[in-house]
């Protein structure tokens, strides 16, 4: 067991979380959420996506949100882009990193981005090239690395195949995503083993939705392999409009609470993080979907 001594968390709440809200969330609230996350010590924040507003209207204010950010040196602001049109639109917003997003499942690729896995790689290749030429970092999200809402179980060989394609077009690091939260620790470890045939341990991160309550266990399983980049979502926000029934990402508060208890450094102030989660949850008219946040808020109130 080679537990990392420090972990870098990438909060995907503003993007993965707010892309899935039924009621529109104003750009001002999204901007304030990003500011609160950076004040809490987050050094990587996935802010928005430059996708078709017909497909995901929740992210139509992408440029406005990016323009409203008070950027803090040392913080990496990333955005999703599915194609060259999205990349060209994103360029003006000066993201530090773009994220191309593919899937280990053919059916999910079709539903989510309206093309096959092979076609998606053809679309991503010039985007990756243009981003790297412009000095912008490139991450690749790999959806459905353990299970797919349309195809069921996904074997590690599909993950290895996709990781190899991503590597082949120049993607610098990848996310091993459990889109619908059906992964359990050994399955998630197998997906990482497959990914690590193409990428180094510093170039992979976990992205676990918590639909079945497995995401903290899966985070620990990845940590035990030495994976030290993890994605999470403040207040457990999240979901994908093309993965019905899938709930939010593992809550950042829950991951930070676990890591603090294990003596693993994140550089995050848990109290400020809880305030950030409370801010957006109040805005959405519900309680934070985080056990640690609920417990600590109850303790504060008591
Ligand atoms: P398409 O309809 O096949 O695209 O959609 P198209 O190229 O045929 O273009 C159709 C129209 O869309 C045209 O406009 C284009 O200009 C426009 P029209 O002529 O009809 O007025 N268009 C765009 N507009 C703005 N930005 C763009 C863009 N591209 C085309 N970038 C497309 C293909 C990929 C665009 C579409 O399927 C799409 O936007 N999909 C996004 C789906 C999405 O955002 N899903 C959620 C994010 S992924 C996720 O959550 C998973 C993750 O968290 C990991 C995990 O948990 O698994 C990352
Ligand atoms: Mg996701």
What does this 3D model show about the protein?
The protein is α/β, with parallel strands linked by helices. It has one domain: Alpha-Beta Barrel (TIM Barrel). 42% of the residues lie in helices and 16% in strands. It contains twelve helices and ten strands. The strands form two sheets. Strands 1-2-3-4-5-8-9-10 form an eight-stranded parallel barrel, surrounded by eight helices. Helix 2 packs antiparallel against helix 11 (270-284), helix 7 (156-168) runs parallel beside helix 8 and helix 10 (252-261) packs antiparallel against helix 11. The longest helix is centred in the middle third of the chain and has 17 residues, at 117-133. It starts with 7 loop residues before the first strand and ends with a helix. The mean pLDDT is 97.
Top keywords for this entry?
TIM Barrel, 302 residues, single chain, 42% helix, globular, binds magnesium ion, 8-stranded parallel barrel, 12 helices, two-stranded antiparallel sheet, alpha/beta, binds 3-hydroxy-3-methylglutaryl-coenzyme A
Report the sheet-strand fraction. 15-25%
Mean pLDDT: 97
- Beta-strand segment tally: 10
Order of helices and strands: EHHEHEHEHHEEEHEHEHEHHH
Give the distinct bound molecules: 3-hydroxy-3-methylglutaryl-coenzyme A, magnesium ion
Structural class: alpha/beta
| CATH architectural label | Alpha-Beta Barrel
Strand adjacency order, main sheet: 1-2-3-4-5-8-9-10
User: Regions with pLDDT < 50 over 5+ consecutive residues?
Assistant: none
How many alpha or pi helices?
12
Can you say what the CATH homologous superfamily is? Aldolase class I
């Amino acid at each position: 067991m080679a537990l990392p001594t420090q972990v870098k968390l990438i909060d995907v709440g503003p993007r993965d979380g707010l892309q899935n809200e039924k009621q529109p969330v104003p750009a001002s609230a999204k901007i304030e959420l990003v500011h609160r996350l950076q004040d809490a010590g987050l050094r990587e924040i996935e802010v928005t996506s430059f996708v078709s507003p017909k497909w995901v209207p929740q992210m139509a204010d992408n440029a406005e949100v990016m323009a409203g950010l008070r950027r803090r040196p040392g913080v990496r602001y990333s955005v999703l882009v599915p194609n060259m049109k999205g990349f060209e639109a994103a360029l003006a917003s000066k993201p530090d990193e773009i994220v191309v997003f593919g899937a280990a499942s053919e059916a999910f690729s079709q539903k989510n981005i309206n093309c096959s896995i092979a076609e998606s790689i053809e679309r991503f290749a010039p985007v990756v090239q243009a981003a790297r030429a412009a000095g912008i970092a490139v991450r690749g999200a790999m959806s459905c690395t353990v299970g797919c809402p349309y195809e069921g179980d996904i074997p590690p060989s599909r993950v290895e195949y996709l990781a190899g394609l991503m590597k082949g077009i120049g993607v610098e690091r990848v996310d091993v995503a459990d889109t619908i939260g059906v992964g359990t620790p050994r399955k998630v470890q197998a997906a990482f083993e497959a990914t690590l045939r193409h990428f180094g341990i510093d170039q992979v991160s976990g992205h676990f939705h918590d639909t079945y309550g497995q995401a903290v266990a899966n985070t620990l399983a990845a940590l035990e392999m030495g994976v030290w980049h993890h994605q999470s979502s403040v207040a457990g926000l999240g979901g994908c409009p093309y993965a019905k029934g899938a709930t939010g990402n593992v809550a950042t508060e829950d991951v930070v609470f676990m890591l603090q208890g294990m003596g693993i450094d994140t550089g995050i102030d848990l109290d400020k993080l809880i305030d950030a989660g409370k801010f957006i949850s109040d805005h959405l008219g519900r309680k934070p979907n985080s056990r640690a946040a609920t417990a600590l808020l109850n303790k504060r109130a008591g």
